[in-house]
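Risk register update: the risk of archive-format incompatibility is retired. Evidence:
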Amino acid sequence: MSKSRVSDPLVARAREAALGAYAPYSRFSVGCAIESVDGEVAIGANMENACYRLGVCAELAALTAAQQAFGLGNIARIAVAGGNVDADGNLAGEGVVTSCGGCRQSILEAAHVSGRDLEVVSSNGDGTDVRTDLISALIPHGFGPANLEDAG
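Archived output:
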């Protein structure tokens, strides 16, 4: 039985971005696409390193690209997709990929900058299954700029 692809173009961009990942160790490619309030899109993919802790998540790469392209304050929503790249060069995988805790924290910072509770769309590699959450639901009681008011 074949599942149909999700029609969200931002998910499609995240899946495409995953094909540009550098993931020789895990062979798990993740892509992220960030849409601005004006419809511009910035993308990023994970980049692994032989010194594992120096790897970069797709969300951080995309947030950096978004900051340069249109600014964190203009982010409207984010899509993430991940899985393995099959023999035909397509992103595959059945499990919906959600952002790690560190990436959720970074997305929360962008939400604070934008003043919007950002929508995060998470997709499986095949692009047939998604879930949509607000960042406030993904990282409740998150730490943000307001927490630093007492820093002096």
